[in-house]
Every structure is written in structure tokens, then in C-alpha cells.
Amino acid sequence: MKTLLIVYHSMTGGTAQLARAAAAGAGSEAGLRVRLLRALDAQPADVIEADGYVFAMPENLASMSGLMKDFFDRCYYGALERVNGRPYAVLVCAGSDGSNAARQAERIATGWRLRPVAPAIIVCTHAQTPEDIARAKHIGVDDLKRCEELGAALAAGIVLGIY
Ligand SMILES: Cc1cc2nc3c(=O)[nH]c(=O)nc-3n(C[C@H](O)[C@H](O)[C@H](O)COP(=O)(O)O)c2cc1C
Q1: DSSP string, 84-123
Q2: What distance lies between CA 117 and its chain's CA centroid?
Q3: Which of 134, 73, 128 is nearest to 105 (CA)?
Q4: Maximum distance among all Cα pairs of the chain, rounded to whole angstroms
Q5: pLDDT in tens for each of the 163 residues of the chain?
Q6: Pocket of ligand 1, beta carbon within 6 A
Q7: Atom of ligand 1 nearest to the CA of 15
Q8: pTM assigned to the model
Q9: How many Å lie between the centroid of ligand 1 and the Cα of residue 152?
Q10: Residues 156, 160, 163, CA angle at the centre, nearest 5°?
Q11: Mutational test site, ligand 1, from 6, 133, 137, 143, max ligand atoms within 8 Å of CB
Q12: How are beta strands 87-94 and 115-116 bridged, if at all?
């Protein structure tokens, strides 16, 4: 049984919806276990034991969110050289940009020698005022579908061993 690990952090719920959509897409693949873990709960052993990854995060202050960075900080060296060549994808929930968070995650994944299966999906919630930033996010069906399809494609590739 192969495992897809989805690690995410979310403050106002947007990224959590993206991560759950990817998990739902991957979940229909027979022969694959999907683990959806909050960044705070993910440990190096979880990374090492998985066969592929989705990293999902908000962009905060032109950077990946602090708790997602904390996950990478805690797990990076423990998993280094033990995950080479495995596939991954990145999901970013952002107010208006998201490119820096995606770039940072891709750079870390490159350090782990992971292989991207698709360009990062960046979903903009258009939150720019303090009120909108603080509000619970609602992600539209089209964006959720993109995440679901990416999860399904990643899952199929892992099970078929094409990555
Ligand atoms: C402190 C803070 C800083 C932020 N900085 C950015 C930013 O630099 N670029 C951007 O596109 N969005 C920024 N945002 C907006 C968030 O990315 C947006 O609200 C997103 O939906 C958060 O995802 P979440 O709902 O999963 O927490 C910021 C939000 C907060 C709270």
C-alpha cells in the first residue's frame, strides 16, 4: 500500500479546503492511503514513510506561513537523502499573489530532491483589507476542482509507479 502525505497549514480555512480537495481527489485511487496532516502534527517519520507529497500553505507577508516553514525546519534534515526522487505538488492560498510561497516550497522540495508533478496551484481569495484577511475563506468550486484533479493525478501516478 502506497501513501500520499498531504501537509498543510491554514489560518482562515482557505488552504484547508484546498488540501481536503486534493485528499478527496486522491482518495478515490485504490491501493493508496491518503494522510492529511496539519503542519504542526507532521514529523520527519511521516515524510520518510510517504511515497509522495502535497504541501499546502497560505502566503503570509510574502512568504510561506510560519507554521508551514516550521514543518520544513523540523523535518528537513531528518528526511534529507531518504526521500530522493519522490513526487510532490504545491498548493498555495493567497490574498493576491502567492508566488513567493510557491517558490520557497519548490526550493525546499528541490533540496529534498523531490520531483514536481505539476506547476504549483495558487488560489487567490482577494483578501486585502484587515476585515477580509481575518474572515473565514470560502474557496470556489472551480479552484477546488483543480486541487481535486491534481490530487487524483498524483495518486494515480504513485500507484502506477510512473514517477
Ligand atoms: C499576516 C498576513 C500576511 C499576509 N500576506 C500576504 C501576502 O504577502 N501575499 C498574499 O497574496 N496574501 C497575503 N495574505 C493573505 C492570505 O494569504 C489569505 O488570507 C489566505 O486566504 C490565507 O489562507 P488561509 O485561509 O488558509 O489561512 C496575508 C495574510 C495575513 C494574515
Answers
A1: TT-EEEEEEEESS--HHHHHHHHHHHHHTT-EESSPPEEE
A2: 12
A3: 73
A4: 46
A5: 999 999 999 999 999 999 999 999 999 888 899 999 999 999 999 999 999 999 999 999 999 999 999 999 999 999 999 999 999 999 999 999 999 999 999 999 999 999 999 999 999 999 989 999 999 999 999 999 999 999 999 999 999 988 8
A6: 10-15, 58-62, 93-98, 125, 127, 133, 137
A7: 26
A8: 0.98
A9: 27
A10: 85
A11: 133
A12: parallel
10, three cell numbers: 491554514
**Beta-bridge partner residues of 35:** 5
Residue found under cell 481536503: 20
pLDDT for residue 163: 80
Cell of 108: 525546499
